[in-house]
Amino acid sequence: MRRQATICAFVLLAIAASACAREGSLQDAVEIAVTKTREAQSWRSAGNMTYADATGVTLELSFESEFAAPDRSHSRGIRNGDWHETIVIGDDIYLRSSDEPGWCQSPCEYDGRGVAVVPGSFWKELEFLDLLVDLERLPDEQVGGLVWSHYRGKLDQDSYWDMLETGVATESGQPTENPALLQIRMLETQFELWIDGDDYVRQIESEWRFTDPGLETGNGRLIIQRQHLRFHDFNEPIAIERPSV
User: Fold this and answer.
1) How far apart are CA 54 and CA 211, in angstroms?
2) Percent of the chain scored above 90 by pLDDT?
3) In degrees, to the nearest 5, what angle opens at C-alpha 131 toward C-alphas 204 and 175?
4) Which residues are CB-neighbours of 24 under 8 A, at least 6 positions away?
């Protein structure tokens, strides 16, 4: 009986060790891809985002961007037919929109309401990939004749909270007990990512479910945000020039 118990214990330990090894290898694969993608000298991306609640109120946004090292980016977002465009060269930021089609250099008289494309948002998406847990490997997919590895994971709540405390919360001056930040711990997230054979992150899909605390109305509501991003032209020549103002 004791021998059987010992054998069972060894089997359970072997299963646990195998599971940990698989999780570690998946984490390593994602870390390698994120690191290599960050080191790319240029890239282009395109995507869309939807934002909805239980009443069906929905925000839809499409966007595209490009980056050229070390410090040039160009982003454009479209919502309900209105567009907003940003060019960043070093510390200089240039803005225009469908309402104000002429370029201006920030700071300038510009109605930035509705601008949802933030230069460098690609790097923020990669930050999220650093925080993934419960990774699992999904079946590979063939895209344009190439095989992309497919992964799924969830956002680590504690790590995300720490990032907010040291980043967003600090910069905005909001106290960490602010309900709008505390409800982040209640969110549910799922990320899927695709990595090509050269170890570049080629696509990210995410879904965020969280409760709006309803600070103004006192009525909380479920919010669902979905985002799709696809990247291409890594290390290809990309020219981003300073616009005429």
Assistant:
1) 11
2) 47
3) 115
4) none
The dihedral through the CA atoms of 15, 152, 168, 186 has a sign that is: negative
* Spatial separation of the C-alpha atoms in residues 139 and 151, rounded to whole Å: 8
Helical H segments across the chain, by residue range: 2-38, 121-129, 157-166, 168-172, 179-182
pLDDT of residue 108: 78
Q: What is the pTM of this model?
A: 0.78
State residue 85 phi and psi, 5-degree precision.
-135, 140
Angle (CA) 25 228 31, round 5°? 20
Give me the CATH code for the 2-62+119-232 domain, please. 2.50.20
Strands (E), the chain: 42-53, 58-68, 72-79, 82-89, 92-97, 104-105, 132-143, 146-155, 188-195, 201-212, 221-232
User: Reduced to 3 states, what is the DSSP secondary structure of residue 245?
Assistant: coil
Q: Distance from CA of residue 100 to its chain's centroid?
A: 29
Asked if residue 169 lies in contact with residue 194, where contact means CB atoms within 8 angstroms, the answer is no
CB atoms within 10 A of CB 12: 10
Of the listed ranges 23-27, 73-77, 81-85, 182-186, the least confidently predicted one is: 182-186
What angle do the packed helices 121-129 and 2-38 form, to 10 degrees?
Answer: 170
Q: What's the longest Cα–Cα distance across the chain?
A: 84
Across the strands, what pairs with 45?
65, 231
